[in-house]
Amino acid sequence: MVHEPEAGRSGEALLLEAALQTIPFGFCVWSPDFSLLLWNQRYLDIYGFPRATIVRGMNLRDVVALSCRMGNHPDLDPDVFFASYRQQLLSNRAGLRAISHELAAGGRTLETAHVYAQGLGWVVTHEDVTEEIARSDMLAERKRELELQYALVDATINNISHGVSMFDAQFRLVTCNRAFREMYGLSEEMGARGTAYATIIDHRIATGRHAPVDRDDFLAERRAIMAGGRFVREVIKTASGTYLSLRHQPLRGGGVVTTHEDITEQLAAEARMRHMATHDALTDLPNRALFREEIEKALAGPAAGRSFCLLSINLDNFKAINDADGHSLGDRVLVEAGQRLSQLIGAEGMVARLGGDEFAVLLTEGNPRRAADVARRAVKVLSKPYMFGARSAVLSASVGIAVAPGDGQSADALMNNADLALLRAKSEGRATYNFFEAGMDASLQRRRLLETGLRDAVERGELSLVFQPLIALATDTIVGAEALLRWSHPTLGAIAPSEFITVAEDTGAIHDIGAWVLLEATRTAAEWPAPLQVAVNLSPLQFKRPGLVEAVRSALSSSGLAPERLELEITESLLLDNSIANIETLFALRALGTRVAMDDFGTGYSSLSYLRAFPFDKIKIDRAFMGDIASRPESRAIVKAMIGLGTSLGMTTVAEGVETAEQLAVVRAEGCTQVQGFFHSPPVGASEISAMIRAGRRVQAANLTRAG
Ligand code: C2E
Ligand code: MG
Ligand code: MG
Question: What is this structure's pTM?
């Protein structure tokens, strides 16, 4: 006890003082009238009171003032603090322990607790709690941080789309997120901490959210994963058909954290992408890339060395349909063509669309005989009319065949050679097939030369017309001539129209060339005495683009040729696709005043029915019938029938390709109106035909130039 030194202190007093000095906090006693009765050293230390400043009986106001002077209660006025402290003491006289905090010098916090003891006054303890408070502040802070982190983790795992689960070493659920519960249809309760893994598996099996595997095997596998201690990824297909990707990360102390992802959509999207990369968008057939792959497989796979066949298929004149009727019809034709091919080939191989109107077939079990048969049938099914409501299209197809491994050791070589064979088929009049033969490259090169050469053959003046007279049998005079096109290629020389017209049709050059022929033929014929006629051949392709009627009209007006002196020759292939547009164009041409002839009559398979579609002015009986007309009664009978038919329909009939006097005699006897052929004259140049015409309107056949 620190107080005025006092003589004669009792033994108890000394004992009390020793006890007071040992307690670890400041201690003092205030009498009911607020004078200081007792204190210890710690009390002086806590407030920084020099020993001599505190004396027994000192009143509270002075001690408070001293304390303030020592730097304590820095935020308080000494009088205000005294008043409030005094009030605190006064209001605490029921024997309870009242605690308050005050600030002391040096930024310390003191905790003061006082209890009122009847008859004695207030016993007060003072404790420096600065560190304790700092510690508890720190703990509170730490706790807040942990709570925040926990909330963050919680929010995160609940918001990620993957399911997350954590099981302990005993296979009991530690935690999981919402996605996990939803993915497996777990109730709130089942997703709670402590649920056994087996319970969840049983629930998944019962609801189809589990791989159709044995439950116990599955559990054993999971245990193995945990024991393995290594990251494992697995994809399971559930009984209901969804795909789940699971990533297991075993924990060091046992247990496993797993992410669960439903990848059904993702796999489907990937499959779609894969499909898109390997299939043609329009027809959904395999594309070139997949087709090549398949050929490579056939070449190098387990069946390597076995023979297989490649068919390169092209639609003839497809370009014309696209040009004339718009892409939507063209697209529908392509789709249908693809379907027809797929149906034909079935499981025997693969059908692919390589681009444009190019299709291809891989016959896996192919021998040449089989390939020829398939090619023949492909041409047939693709040549059937394409009907889409009121719209229709007719086209044919050509096929080139390469047989592996003889015709090529690589996919590229095989495809290339099948293409060469295809080109040969095309140049052989289309609607047919051809096998690859060595040396076809040369013919391909020739075709390429023709294609590029045709592009500006008109401008370069390489085209010319020859004229072949038409003789009226009644008078044996020239009544007109057919204009026939010739091309003199700068390096390849003279090229027959049978070779280059198809190329011009394929490349579209036919339109310019056709217009040129019309102009040139009408100009030449305008020099001839009326009513001599000129016949001009029209390609069916020229009908596919608007502008034909205009081209004819402008040729007539610029040449000054009377329309009835122009005869337009069409082949029945034009009517094959029986389109209303084509018939209308024919009528429009007729309306100009021109005449219309059907060329090569009798060679197609329905020439007769076409005679009803349009009232032709003339039919030209194909020269194929002339060959044995003098020797075979059947041929003669057919020609006779055709002439009879034409005559009865009021049409002029022409026999083409009359080469001999015998042939002439027969057709004359059967009542044919006109003849054309080498017997009278081969096609000749413009000046020569003029000379022939000038030489006499009444020229006997014998006087005309003989075929040479
Ligand atoms: P086409 O219209 O039937 O023409 C008759 C063809 O038969 C001509 O062949 C002609 O030279 C040939 N020829 C005439 N008399 C005889 C004969 O007594 N015996 C034999 N064996 N042949 C004879 P060319 O000039 O080679 O024309 C072939 C085809 O090319 C023509 O057949 C025609 O379809 C087409 N063509 C010719 N010029 C044109 C043209 O300007 N435009 C179009 N689109 N096609 C044309
Ligand atoms: Mg002709
Ligand atoms: Mg003809």
Answer: 0.52
